[in-house]
Design brief:
By secondary structure, the protein is an alpha/beta fold. The protein has two domains: 287 residues, 3-Layer(bba) Sandwich (FAD/NAD(P)-binding domain); 93 residues, no CATH class. 31% of the residues lie in helices and 24% in strands. The strands form four sheets. Strands 1, 2, 10, 11, 12, 13, 14 and 20 form an eight-stranded mixed beta sheet that branches. A seven-stranded mixed beta sheet has the order 8-7-16-17-18-15-19. A hairpin with a 4-residue loop joins strand 11 and strand 12. Helix 1 runs parallel beside helix 12 and helix 9 packs across helix 10.
Amino acid sequence: MIKTDWLILGAGPAGLAFSVRLKQLGVSDFIVVEKENTAGGLCRSENVDGAPFDIGGGHFLDVRRPLVNKFLFDFMPESEWNKFERDSRIVINDNVINHPIEANIWQMKLEDQVEYLKSVAVAGCNLGTDMPEKFVPWIYWKLGEKIAEDYMIPYNQKMFGKELNQLGTYWLEKLPNVSFEETLMSCLTKRAYGTQPGHAQFYYPKKYGYGELWRRMAEVLGDRVHYNSAVKSIDFAQKKVTLSNGDEYKADNIITTIPWMEFESLNGMPDEISKIVKELKYTSVQTEYFPQNMDTPAHWIYYPDKKLPYHRILVRHNFCPDSKGYWTETNASRVTSDGQKGGFRYLNKYAYPLNTVNKPMQMKKLLEWSQAHSVYGLGRWGEHNHYNSDLTVELAIKMAERLYED
């Protein structure tokens, strides 16, 4: 039995940031257990064809959280990063336009602009009709028939699965309003209206993949990180975690950043709470490398066309210096046995938590119960929320400071 004050499950961005902040606060009695033989989680990188390949797909460091960036630059200085103005595109109906679609209809063929404008004009949100509660009707209401049917519905089905009405609408509130007036002005003046999407500006390493940042953070923690340590079970009454190899850890506080579904047993958790874990949904995504360079300045491109298996392409040679080629992201359910004649592939079993209808209420119950037993969910998988890495780091820092003060 290995005893420690703090046990952190998972050495991805959440677990690493939490552990580093503990160390900065003067805490030394903590251990991080990690299933893989290296740190980084979904943000890990591999060397493929002489350049980095980010196995989890598109992960970049947003510029919008300067305090987070300052924290991270202590491990990988800002001088080792390139800063980019986001260039993301959508291929739709033989049009290649900038993202987001509602701000860039003006880049389409003229006849398509007319059809999209007509559709936006009679969208429910512009007519003042009641907002629907289900995902698919909500998309029609918010964006109009053309954007819904040509882009949002097929793209989300490719990314998250066919049953879109299992998803809630609470996470879509961040979508901008699509007013007919602004869309029309955009087409007449030939410029985008509205707010910029996330990662409007972002950092990416000059010489490495995104995983280099997290590898360096783990180095700072030294032998406090125990690799090749897959978690099997957790005992809430004894505050004990058992690994698949039989090793046991006992801790006063347990921080879990791994998917709740990874626990083979949750000893001491009542049935009504463990039932929630069984009901949590997620998607798996395969990333695949292709060596050919693409004739585009885009950093990544969205593809709603259902005839194509992948939903997004990351154009590696446009953000990763001295590299070539691109990689695709494909929902595991759409991966064919022969692939797409690419190269290196990686299957991420846990890629995106699904924002199902009841998830906010379910996670509130799960996290409140576990916290009462000194087990704290943190990050994309500990909180089962689609957080980007910068937000994950911010949440981890705040949790470390809050629990340390308590």
